[in-house]
Design brief:
This protein is α/β, with parallel strands linked by helices and 198 residues long. It has helices at 12-22, 49-61, 98-108, 175-181, 183-196; strands at residues 3-7, 27-31, 67-77, 84-85, 118-128, 134-145, 161-163. α1 crosses α5 and α4 packs across α5 (183-196). The chain is globular, with a radius of gyration of 17 Å.
Length: 198
Amino acid sequence: MMRKVILSSGNKHKISEIKDILKGMSFEVVSKDDLGYTDFEVEEDGNTLEENAFKKAEELHRLVKGIVIADDTGLFVDALNGDPGVYSARYAGEPVSYEENNILLLRNLKDVPTEKRTAHFKTVMAVIFEDGRRMSAEGRVDGTIAFEERGKNGFGYDPLFIVEDTGRTFSEMTEEEKNNVSHRARALRNLREKLEEQ
């Protein structure tokens, strides 16, 4: 009987990214939507990415049988004392579009010169096993914030985040290129190693 990994996400882009990086493992990977929990939402009111990720994992773990994986991601901008950070998804309020978040970020960095526009993306993956054991893994990618949106791919802050040593934003990369270097990919690869040890 193959063990099931259930992703606590309804974001189709994120789900395909996770399935792609975990493929070839001896787990069946499904999303909460695949199991009929389309309306399952968790208020992300933790003070850290880890708190939010574990909260999402714990609440779904009560409803399903299997290994639950949840993640939380933030963009941390040095010139803004680490903002938007934990509030990345709702930086410009709620409900909010990616576009509105990006406009606010650019406005808040209006007079900040290139060398002070450093930032990093961080993803924390929280895992709860069938028996309630917990584990986490994280991934980080450094870069700078562009002065305007660049590129057509990706989502969220991708058009503004220039990945260190590439000179390109995530939105200027193909999905494959992004999946090689992104914070979520790095967290998943760390997670994959830990899962294989279980």
